[in-house]
Amino acid sequence: MNYTHRIGMQAWLSLLSLGLIFWFIINNSVLLFKLLAIVLGAWLLSLAIRPIADRLARRQIPRGVTTVSVFIVSVGFLVLLGTLLRPVIQA
Length: 91
Known about the structure:
By secondary structure, the protein is mainly α. Helices cover about 85% and strands about 0% of the residues.
């Protein structure tokens, strides 16, 4: 019996696309890492906001208003912290 194995066009295209994907990942690893960090940060932020949003949603306050309020309070806290720490950092 004579068996011949031939790799078809679909297999070649699959190998080529796999190689291109690896090339893209290697060449853009810094960008992909930054993107992963942003997505992870957004996920953690949503986990932090969810209990507050759930609690205020029971009091008939919309989630959008709660989210914007939490962001405004967070930015205000960071500005206050930066203002208070400025003399310590400059010294």
